[in-house]
Structure prediction request, 362 residues.
Amino acid sequence: MLLAALFLSACSSNNEPKAETTGQQQDLGSTLVVYYSFSGDCSNIVGSLTQLITADVARVEPAQDGVDYAANNYQAGADLINAINSAPNNAGSYPAIKNVNKDVSSYDHVIIVTPLWHSRMAAPMQAYLFQNAAKIAGKQVAMIVSSYSSGISGVVSDANRLLPGATFTTNALWINNSNPSRTASLLSEWIDNINFTQPTMNNEKINVIVGDRKFIATLEQNATAQAFRNMLPMTLSMNELNGNEKYHYLDSSLPTQATSPGTIHTGDIMLYGASCVVLFYDTFNTSYSYTPIGHIDNPEGLREALGTGGISVSFERINTGIDRVAADPLRSGDSAVYTIDGRRVGTPEHGIYIKNGKKIIR
Prediction:
C-alpha cells in the first residue's frame, strides 16, 4: 500500500499548468520551471508555483505514451530506476523522452519539480537532466520534490550527480502527504530562500555575426538588454529600411523604457516599440524613440557586411569561461573548486574543474 501511494503521488501530465496569471508575482529573473508528472501532484505544485513567480514552464514526457507505471506492483517504474542505478553514466540507461519545448540554455535559473520513485528521482526527469547537464552547468538551480512519505535524500543525491556544474541555491522543498494543503504557503516561504541572483550586465559582450564577419557588441545595463541576452543565441531574418537600418519583429515583447536619443550612431542595436529589434549601420539624427539594447564596439565594415537588402544576422553570447585561476598567496590552503565557466562549487563530482589555477578531472 505504501509503495502504491508513493507512485500515485508522483505527478501527472493532466491539466498542464499555465505560467500566465493575473495576480502579483515575484520576479526571479530569467527562470524556467521544468517538471515531470504522472499522477497529478507535481502538476498541481507547478500550478501553485506559477501563481507566485514569473517563469516559463517546460514539461518532461516519456517518449512512449500510455505507460502504466503502476502496473504489476509498479514494476515498470522500478525497472527504469534499476537500469539507471546500474550504469548512471551510460546514456542508454535512461528512458527516452520527448523533445521539450523550451531550451534551458536560454535561462539563468532553473527550478526542477519532480516526483520520487523508489526513493530516487523519477526516471524521465533523470533522463532530462542527464541530457541537458552541459546546458544547465553554471546556472542557479532549485528543486521541489513530491512524495507520499519517503524522505528525499536520494532525489537530492541524484540531482547533485546529474548536475555537477550547477549551483543549488537552497535546500530542496519536500511536499508530501502530510502537507499538501499547505502547498501555497510552503512554496511562498521557500521562494524567499531561493536567493537567485541576477547575472551581471557590466560591460557584457555578445557576438553579432553577419555572413563571414563577426562583430563584438557591448550590451546596455537595463532590463531590455538582459531580456534580449536571455533569448540568445538566435538568428534573425532582418529587413532593410531607409538605407540605414535592418529590423526584425520578434514573436514576443521585451521590457521597454524608450527615450529619444536624438542621434543614432552606426552600430547601435535598439528596440523600437516592444518587439522590433533594429541594427543601425549609419549615423543620423532622429526624432523617434527607442530603448537601447547595445552597441557594436567597432562597426567598421558593418554597412558593407549588411548590404542593401534583407539578411540573416546571428546574435550569440560570448562564453568567458575560466582559462586560469590565480591562487591567492595569502590563502594557500584555500581548496576552492570552480566550474569551467567560473562558478564555485562545494562538492564537485564528475566533470572538468579549475582548482589552484589548474584544470582537474573528477
About this structure: The chain has three domains: 2-192, 205-317, 329-361.
